[in-house]
Amino acid sequence: MDISFDNVSYTYQPNTPLEHQALREVSFTIQSGSFVCIAGHTGSGKSTLVQLINGLLRPTEGKVKVGDFSLTSNKNHSVRDLRKNVGIVFQYPEHQLFEETVKEDILFGPRNFGVTVSDEQLHQVIEHVGLEPSILEKSPFEISGGQKRRVAIASVLVLEPKVLILDEPTAGLDPTGEQQIMKLFQRLHREKDMTIMMITHDMEHALNYANHMLVFEQGRLMLEGNPTNLFSNGDYLETIGLGLPEAIKLINEVKRLTGLNISYDRHSIEDIAVQLSNWAKAGGGQ
C-alpha cells in the first residue's frame, strides 16, 4: 500500500488556549514495500504522523492516502478496514497485555474485527516472532520481558497488516534483544514485502535497515530520502539531536585525515577497513 500525505497539517485542541499545531503542511509519498525511518526530536510530530496513517487521527487540513483509503477532516466514513490493514506496535507494547493467556491476548484484536483465526495461523504467527507454540497457553505475566514484546508484536501481525508502524520498537531492550527484534522486522520486510514505518532516535537502525528516511523538526518535514544520502547533512542532524551512525562518523574522519572518499553506501566496518587497506597498499598518503 502506497502512503501519501498531501499538504497535511494537524492541530490539537484547535480554538482553545491549549491549541498546538503538531504537523505543518507535510507532503511526501512512500512506495509500498518500503522500510522507512521516521526521525526527529521529541515533539517534532512523529507520533502524530503515524496516528494519521492508521486513522487514529484525521488531518486538520490536507489529505492522507493509504492505498485506496483517503482521510481528510471529514469524519463521515469508517476507518475500520484501514486499521485492519495498518498495524501499530506502540512503545513498550508489552504493557498492553492483559488477558489470562498469551493466546487470548493475540486473539483480542481479530475478535474486535470479526476475524476468525485458526490454531494453525496462531502457531505460524507465534513461530514467526521466534517463540514456541507452547507459550500460547501461558499467562503473559509469567514470561520474560523480551517474550512479552514478541507476543505484543504477534498480536498485531496476526491480522496480516500490509503496513506495520513501529514506535521506538527497541526501547528498553538489552543489545541482544534489540538486535533480535530488528532482525525480525527486517525479515518481515523481506519475506512479506511489508511496508514498515519505524519511529526511532537510533541512526544506526536507520542506516542498517531503512531504505527511506523522513526527518521532522517542529512539525515540518525537513529532510527526506535515502538514509545514506541524508547523512551528508550531518551538521544539521547534530543540531536537532540525532547525530550520525558510528560508521558514517568513521568515514568522515577517514576523509578528513587522508582525503580518501569512501561512499556512504559502503558503510560496514569491514568495507571501510578493506578500502583503507587498499589505499595504504597503493601508497596512499605518500
From TrEMBL:
Alphabetized GO MF terms = ATP binding; ATP hydrolysis activity; ATPase-coupled transmembrane transporter activity; cobalt ion transmembrane transporter activity
Q: What is its EC number?
A: 7.-.-.-
Keyword field contains Membrane? yes
User: Where mainly located?
Assistant: membrane
Its localization reads: Cell membrane
Q: Which Pfam families match?
A: ABC_tran (PF00005)
Q: Which InterPro entries match?
A: AAA+_ATPase, ABC_transporter-like_ATP-bd, ABC_transporter-like_CS, ABC_transpr_CbiO/EcfA_su, ECF_ABC_transporter_ATP-bd, EcfA2, P-loop_NTPase
Membrane topology reported for the UniProt record: Peripheral membrane protein
- What job does the chain carry out? ATP-binding (A) component of a common energy-coupling factor (ECF) ABC-transporter complex.
Q: What is this protein called?
A: Energy-coupling factor transporter ATP-binding protein EcfA2
Q: Which organism is it from?
A: Piscibacillus halophilus
Q: What is the lineage of its organism?
A: Bacteria, Bacillati, Bacillota, Bacilli, Bacillales
